[in-house]
Design a protein that fits this description.
heterodimer; A: 116 residues; mainly beta; Immunoglobulin-like; six-stranded mixed β-sheet; globular; B: 116 residues; seven-stranded mixed β-sheet; four-stranded antiparallel β-sheet; 0% helix
């Protein structure tokens, strides 16, 4: 079974600074997707960034980028130029390619606070 | 596009009662998945519906059941409610057949269930 581990329950960053959120996962599959989701107090899960395992290039989305280390099964999220609106819970998630086993497996999440 | 909509947003039930939660998927999506998110935890997969059948199920008892209608909307039913069923219930919709990232999940804002 696949597992996703987020060992840091909380992190804090100064506005405009950079922060890195860590995630490790375990799988025997070679083809899969990894995601970072943001969940603000409004509760809606919002996709921040995705990474396809077969792509060696790290994904980037504006101020968000990942460090994907497939051999180490590590998938960290870097937030640059942190903004007050980045404060939320962040979840790392794993999914196999679409089909019968396309459920998302989430980590426990990390609460990110942004200091003005 | 209204996205994924869930109803109700909040409800309070008494132990032993039954509850039905509803979800309308994003336009064009044919697959609905349900997740339970306990306070301070990551979402846990309950089950997934496609073509009106349960296709995959997580580690949840038979008290949790669901249904998908011909218009792809879905219901989650929980019988004999326990205090431990108090959680945020998230619905996610996806498509198996189209999109750059087939199977990518879009989430609703959830239903907060409190069992007293």
């Amino acid at each position: 079974a696949q597992t996703v581990t987020q060992s840091q329950p909380e992190m804090s960053v100064q506005e405009a600074e950079t922060v890195t959120l860590s995630c490790t996962y375990d799988t025997s599959e070679s083809d899969y997707y990894l995601f970072w989701y943001k969940q603000p107090p409004s509760r809606q899960m919002i996709l921040v960034i995705r990474q396809e395992a077969y792509k060696q290039q790290n994904a980037t989305e504006n101020r968000f980028s990942v460090n994907f280390q497939k051999a180490a099964k590590s998938f960290s999220l870097k937030i640059s130029d942190s903004q007050l609106g980045d404060a939320a819970m962040y979840f790392c998630a794993y999914r196999r390619p679409t089909g019968a086993n396309s459920k998302l497996t989430f980590g426990k999440g990390i609460t990110l606070s942004v200091r003005p | 596009d209204a996205g994924v909509t869930q109803s109700p947003t909040h409800l309070i039930k008494t132990r032993g009662q039954q509850v039905t939660l509803r979800c309308s998927p994003k336009s064009g999506h044919d697959t609905v998945s349900w997740y339970q998110q306990a306070l301070g935890q990551g979402p846990q997969f309950i089950f997934q519906y496609y073509e009106e059948e349960e296709r995959q199920r997580g580690n949840f008892p038979d008290r949790f059941s669901g249904h998908q209608f011909p218009n792809y909307s879905s219901e989650l039913n929980v019988n004999a409610l326990l205090l431990g069923d108090s959680a945020l219930y998230l619905c996610a919709s996806s498509s198996r057949t189209w999109g750059q990232f087939k199977g990518e999940a879009f989430f609703g804002q959830g239903t907060r269930l409190t069992v007293v």
